[in-house]
Amino acid sequence: MRRGSSERSKDMIRLQPESVIPILKPKLIVNLGNLIEHGTDRNEFLKLCKRVEYTIRAWYLLQFEDLMQLHSLFDPSHGAQRLEQQNLSNEEIDVLEQNFLTYLFQVLEKSNFNIVTDEEIEVAQSGQYLLNLPIKVDESKLDKNLLSKYFRDHPFENLPEFSDKYVIFRRGIGIDRTTDYFIMEKLDVIISRAWSWLLKVSKLGKLFSRKSVIKPVKDTKKTDEITADKEEEDLYVERIRLETLELSMKNLLGKITIQEPTFDRMIVIYRRSSDSAKKDRGIYVKHFKNIPMADMELVLPEKKNPSLTPMDWVKFLISVVLGLVTLISSLEMPKADIWVVAAILSGLIGYCAKIYFSFQQSMVAYQSLITQSMYDKQLDSGRGTVLHLCDDVIQQEVKEVIISYFILMEQGKATMDDLDIRCEELIREEFGVNCNFEVHDAVQKLEKLGIVSRDTVGRIYCSPLKRANEIIGPTTEELVLKARQGAAA
After folding, report:
1. Mutual angle of helices 439-449 and 383-411, in 10-degree steps
2. How far apart are CA 168 and CA 162, in angstroms?
């Protein structure tokens, strides 16, 4: 994810295709089956899809059972009671909780989740959407040992600076649009621009300027060394924000639509801090959906109640002092210009009003967004999230195998690179989405199933449909269904 601008100076974000296949498995199987001409082959293909899913599900069954057993020990609600029943030492518990994180992170990786980096956070927070207050985490309420130990033993690249306290995973990209009158927000924009103009005219702007907490993101045209083909695959999404609103009567009096890219799924992992006497072993795993990038703070754990920043108070006090000094000086002049006095008073009152209305409106929006994130955007937490991830791994693995086998079946032998390109083309042409297909992972599973081989020059080819079904063989689910049908007859 990078930020750039178009020829018309639009605020654009370039989003690179992700490895997740955003197609429902039933739709994928039906559409691919319809591309097969002969009915016999189509039936064999549908049978193969079922056997692939049943087999992959069996592969992961034991690993997922271990994960769920470990989670039950560190569930914030009831984990403490289960740990007491196990009568384990602190050292043994330390090992178990690190094992739980290892399994959990493996499942997240298999589900194509990525850890949010500092760069992505900077790009996301370089603009505002619906949340206009500076939200910070109360770090004193978060444990700093659990994740620090894990990342020492399992190094990751580009870890964010807060990774010792909590970690955020994200997957998938979407777009959120909101249409409203935004009356108070428009008023805030007008007052902000009037204040900026007043500072520029009075040459007092330098007194209030401060270095941005967000590092500048370099123009992608200057920094990215990518090929034209790769750039064409990327998705460009425009940020439509109130800050760049054109001050026309139509925009000011009517409804407008703002737009922001979203993270389709976000998962936050952390532990609360506790005293040394009774250590809290609970590990929180929270799952969110459709989080606007600029409002990423919604998913942060243990948020502080927002308030005016120290810089806002400094600017406010300096403005009042300078305004009063200038006003008194103007009144003491032999011929006080009423228009100068009016301009100073208007600017002073306008800035005070800006701070007050902006903060009050932001507080209302903040409370609304927090409530919405709890009821609408939080998918699940704890056990529900872990179960969802386990099923998601199976769905992604099955889709990878089905797509890669279908390409080999229809188009014949292919090198690894050719197969990668063909799979991505199929997804784009048949389903209209871009995906960075994980061809190596797919081929490994095909080889494990025993339904693909390599020729003397390393090209990959698949077994015929009927033979592939024979190689996998009847699954336990098929035998159970067959026995049930026989009993019913």
Report:
1. 80
2. 10
Identify whether the C-beta of residue 45 lies closer than 8 Å to the C-beta of residue 466: no
The DSSP 8-state label assigned to residue 166 in this structure reads: E
C-beta separation of 267 from 166 below 8 A: no
Q: How far apart are CA 108 and CA 98, in angstroms?
A: 15
Q: Which residues contact 292 (CB under 8 A, 6 or more apart)?
A: 129, 130, 176, 260, 261, 262
Integer angstrom CA distances of residue 448 from 79, 260, 310, 460: 37, 42, 60, 14
Residue 133 DSSP SS3 = coil
CA distances from 482 to 43, 47, 309 (A): 17, 14, 68
Q: Convert 44-75 to b/e letters by CB count within 10 Å (16 or more is b).
A: bbebbbbbbbbbbbeebeeebeebeebbbbbb
Of 336, 297, 283, the closest CA to residue 162 belongs to 297
Give the pair of three-digit tokens for residue 349: 């009152």
The tokens describing 315, both together, are 């600017």
Q: What are phi and psi of 454, to 5 degrees?
A: -125, 145
Q: How far apart are CA 271 and CA 280, in angstroms?
A: 8
**404/387 Cα distance (integer angstroms):** 27
Taking CA atoms, 454 is separated from 368, 412, 419, 444, 458, in Å, by: 57, 12, 13, 12, 5
- CA distance linking residue 346 with residue 327, whole number of Å: 11
The first and second tokens of residue 445, run together, are 């599973």
pLDDT in tens, the chain (489 residues): 656 544 445 778 877 778 889 999 999 999 999 999 999 999 999 999 999 999 999 999 988 999 999 999 999 989 999 998 998 999 999 999 999 999 999 999 999 999 999 888 887 777 778 777 777 889 999 999 999 999 999 999 889 999 999 999 999 888 899 898 888 778 777 877 776 777 677 665 555 554 433 343 444 443 444 344 544 556 778 888 887 778 788 888 899 999 999 999 999 999 999 877 778 899 999 999 999 998 888 889 998 876 655 555 565 666 667 666 666 666 666 555 666 666 666 766 776 776 667 666 666 666 666 666 666 788 888 899 999 999 999 999 999 999 999 999 999 999 999 999 999 999 999 999 888 999 999 999 999 999 999 999 999 999 999 999 999 999 988 888 888 887 776
Angle at 118 between CA 11 and CA 282, to 5 degrees: 125
* DSSP assignment letter at 373: I
Q: Do 68 and 387 meet the contact criterion of CB atoms below 8 Å apart?
A: yes
The neighbouring-strand residues paired with 365 are: none
